[in-house]
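TOPIC: backbone geometry
CONTENTS: sequence, structure tokens:
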Amino acid sequence: MKGLSNKRVFITGAASGIGKATAERFYAEGSELVLIDMPTLEQAELASLFPNRMTYIQGDVTKAETLEKIKNESAKGMDVFVNNAGITKDATISKMTDEQWDAVIAVNLTAIFKLSRLASEVMKAQGRGGVILNAASIVAHYGNFGQANYSASKAGVIALSKTLAKELGKDQIRVNVVAPGSIATAMLANVPEKVQAMIADKALLKRIGSSEDVASAYAFLASDDASYITGATLNVDGGMILG
């Protein structure tokens, strides 16, 4: 990808799954990484994967102290911010608690708002533009049984990102969304094989996506190859939304 070498790329939820694959992709492209995630046993593995050009920030993206750490690190520069962190706490509406709703909205939407605001302020001050990429999901388009909180948060991310694209375009800051379908992460690994086969069959490409598929979308949208793309939502779903 053009224009990713030597860029400082911040990635939340970077210790596993899509976030980790995204870090690997940007590292391969020559980017300098600032990886953000909860305290995790995988830190040693991350250090071995990225022996240089990597800074790790431990913290919860919903906490003010984590945002302060990110702000402090941004003093060294910030070119791309990937808001990848997300959680699920599924239940039907009759059983969903206030705590389940609040927790998902806090991580999946409010934290993205706060971190996008922080990133935009840094990028404006630098005066060279930048890229903000936000994680949604194809359930943002049509909802999903038992996921009122998750679906609402991801739909909110798309609307938020379109608004930010309108506000920040004059500063040459591009804001785009990646909306994955069913991706082979640890969460899906716990689903029975029969159910996984049914999920794969819903995609036009007849397979479940990989974390690398999503990482490639992030890398493209961050690169100079996408320099005239902003306010867009890229579905990485194998055509599932059309199935």
User: Anything to note?
Assistant: The chain has one domain: 8-181+210-232. The radius of gyration is 17 Å. The chain has a mean pLDDT of 95. The beta strands are 8-12, 32-37, 54-58, 80-83, 130-135, 173-180, 233-236.
